[in-house]
Sequence to fold (344 residues):
Amino acid sequence: MAFQERVFSGMQPTGNLHLGNYLGAMIRWIELQKSMDCIYCVVDMHAITVFQDPADLTRAIREVTAAYIACGLDPARSVIFNQSQVAEHAELAWVFNCVARLGWLNRMTQFKEKAGKDRENASVGLYAYPNLMAADILVYRATHVPVGEDQKQHLELARDIAQKFNGDFRQAIAARGHNSDGFFPLPEPLIQGPATRVMSLRDGTKKMSKSDPSDYSRINLTDDADAIAQKVRKAKTDADALPSEEAGLKGRPEAENLVGIFAALDGRTKQAVLDQFGGAQFSAFKAALVDLAVARLAPIGEEMRRLVADPSSIDAILRDGADRARAIARPNMDAVKDIVGFIR
Ligand code: TYM
Fold:
């Protein structure tokens, strides 16, 4: 018996969303909501794995929600909510803390990067973060997870957790008449498109991220037209003209990044962009990229500013989304309790 198809994904409300979030994930989210049941979460419980000022966190949750809607997610079609309003995430995460193995978490490269040298001083939450992420997805028994390249390892862990749970509790699952493939689906990562790993505008070998101290390294979704244009114009390039074939981008990380950004913003492939700009100098290419980026991104920033001016409407959307999310999560969590052997 196949699992019902369902999409789940989330973003952390820590600071600004940027072009990497938009091109690596959001564009796909918007596409998927046209044809599938989608649940899009503002993962505030993940955010506090690193200390957040409470007032900033509240503001950031509303701002990310506004970004979701301004980018084109439709709260009537998709379920949009913040994680901490649906307690089942934390409830299932505890069960997964007991399923996942220390050795699995020890391999997570993102923890190593984020904890840095002072690992002893990292929060336990930062370490167990991938288990909560698995719970986010599996509490809805979601089958598809659209994300950027950097989340691939976490999704492999989610699949391992689903598989081990299905195996450890095989008899209890069968006894309760659940899906013969196991209680949880193995969620499939959707890492697609020409910009699954958007790089810094200052250094084509570093990922674009909100933690980079240079604001010129990224385009924020809140940037206005002037800021977007400035950042594109200042973006690092090399001295050569653009190649005509995609293979010619090898070893030219800045060129490859800008071509990928153009392609993703315009809904085409890198090769299609090079068919147009092969042989052109960066000055001409950047001028076209400024026009495209401003046309696509500036309206999002404006709409976000309009939405955050009315926080009570945003809060109402989150509450409604949380009610709809809980209606799916609660029966699944009850089933997990029965499978594990808890009394309820
Ligand atoms: P987060 O908040 O870091 O990023 C949100 C989404 O944006 C993608 N992304 C990028 N894609 C391309 N290039 C970049 N430079 C770039 N930077 C970020 C990320 O891959 C992600 O898809 N752990 C997750 C949040 C999460 C989650 C989940 C995701 C929590 N639970 C369950 C999916 C399913 C994170 O920190 O994403």
Q: What stands out?
A: Residues 311-340 form the longest helix (30 residues). The chain has two domains: 7-196+310-340, 215-306. Residues 8-12, 20-21, 24-25, 43, 46, 133, 136-137, 145, 147-148, 150-151, 154, 196-198, 207-208 surround tryptophanyl-5'AMP (CB under 6 Å).
